[in-house]
Automatic annotation (TrEMBL):
Organism: Nonomuraea glycinis
Protein location: Cell envelope
One Pfam family this sequence matches: Peripla_BP_4
An annotated GO cellular component: cell envelope
Keywords: Signal
Periplasmic binding protein domain span: 35-292
Family: Belongs to the bacterial solute-binding protein 2 family.
Gene Ontology molecular function: any one: carbohydrate binding
Official protein name in the record: Sugar ABC transporter substrate-binding protein
CDD domains associated with the record: PBP1_ABC_sugar_binding-like
Stored SUPFAM superfamilies: Periplasmic binding protein-like I (SSF53822)
InterPro entries: Peripla_BP_I, SBP_2_dom
Amino acid sequence: MISRLSAGLLAAALLVTGCGGNGQDTSTETAAAKVGLITKTETNPFFVKMKEGAQKAAQAEGMELMSAAGKFDGDNASQITAIENMVAAGVKGILITPSDTKAIVPAIKKARDAGVLVIALDTPTDPQDATDALFATDNLKAGELIGQYAKAAMAGKPAKIATLDLAPGVTVGQLRHDGFLKGFGISEGDPSIVCSQDTQGDQSKGQTAMENCLQKAPDINVVYTINEPAALGAHTALKAKGREKDVLVVSVDGGCTGVKAVQSGQIAATSQQYPLKMAESGVKAVSAFAKGGTKSSGYTDTGVTLITDKDATGVEAEDTAFGLANCWG
């Protein structure tokens, strides 16, 4: 994430590893074709689950998985290095969740020019067609679902909204933000938006952002967050002010920790996405390209579901039992 999107600021240094290979020259016909996976961080549970899905799919397809991750969310330099290393290692395809959706484009172009299939997972590049294909949550829809929920849950009460966003230059964050506004039925600059802060999807930064917003607008009653770590940080700040019971917090991701937070009432609702499906679909696409030259193209929606235990009129949702059965992390 954005997913999405994220709690990996303490990630380890760039890791590039080959999994399942035997170290032999891949130029031989008997060597397994290689597929690369580059995530934003190694520690975010979303990307941990994505890597698990990629490894499982690679084994099923008889491929060798190479994996890499940045030192932190937004580490474009490490992702560029990972692309170059993987192309040099002879991968047939690269799956990537871009940290900087614009700055990564030239490196992706070089890989594609070298004959490597490049597929974005979770986060589209800017422009989206800089990769051959995209397997991802419809992040605009994810935001729209929680926006619709928040609007219905407010039941006509005037809203004082804080948006705890991701960071500039990341499409997944912008899409979720725009979707929330659309679902709530307002536009950017609407007077009901009383505070907006970036959090980088981090829990501690989410707490600080919420504290700043409460200082600016103590009467906030709706909080949109880019992801569940940011939402949990916001809850901590609200609780410190005795406001945790009367402020509606909505989010996106659907990790197990986030769904449990919905179950406990810390978050009212979240939009759940499915990183395992993204990775499995991406590996299968690279396998098809390696075996027969078939190139995936365009956008494949890997699904999103609104999760809440507090139904809102006119908004379709599943409960936390469904969310826990399908969560990650």
